[in-house]
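Section 3.1: Structural characterization of target chains.
Under the original work plan, the team committed to producing a structural model for every single-chain target entering the pipeline before any wet-lab resources were allocated. The record below documents one such target. The sequence was received from the expression subgroup and is listed exactly as submitted; it comprises 265 residues.
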Amino acid sequence: MSETVPLNAIIAGEAGPAVVILHGLLGSARNWRSIARRLAGGGRRVHALDLRNHGQSPWADDTGYAAMAADVERHAAAAGLEAPAVLGHSMGGKVAMVLALTRPASVGALVVADVAPVRYQSAFGPWIAAMRAIDAGALKRRAEAEARLAPAVPDAIVRAFLAQNLETDGDGLRWRPNLDALAAGLETDILGFPDLPASARYEGPALFLRGERSDYVRPAHHDAIRARFPAAEFAVVPDAGHWLHAENPRAFLAALDAFLRRAGR
């Protein structure tokens, strides 16, 4: 496995049970700032992390889940977060699952948002290709990037989400994520799930949330989830798709807060 990298964190709250938040592919900790603040308002110490190759965290060639989980463990240890609750969405949910399965003592409770421990087909490949085809340095505004993404990304909400990955760089813009590494690792690492030993299980409290309109977590996946996470609970966030935390934050937070309280977090 490659060396770990130090992860950038957005921190909310100074005391209380620790919660670590892991975003999805092409997301960042900034997407979770509002959720982090609300969790902190309930008396928790929250660290929303930029995973490697995303946001303000360093780039690395290794896009495997073992490497990303090791990064998270390193951050939690350095920050003094002992057995935090770990919440992960989509790709971040897979990171959270791998961390719980390979280092169960380091996870006090697990929340997986709209993903299962299985391989997926995804639209992210064409999206990343469209992003890489744009010379961001020649752009002045995110709106220009959104217009150029339109042929490959017809959904305006998704285009705006992708354009959030642009930041000012001199007179132009640049992509924050390591798009080359993510493109290279998409099929080999990110869309799949590691082939872990059958003995790899997480016995602690676990909640699997799915968006009502999403098909990422289907009933057919429940057996695979329970085989690894025997204490798994399942809940549905109504009126939401894959980005359930953004589409219905009130219902998402209600389910999350209730679970964390039951888990003593």
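The CA atoms of residues 7 and 122 lie 26 Å apart.
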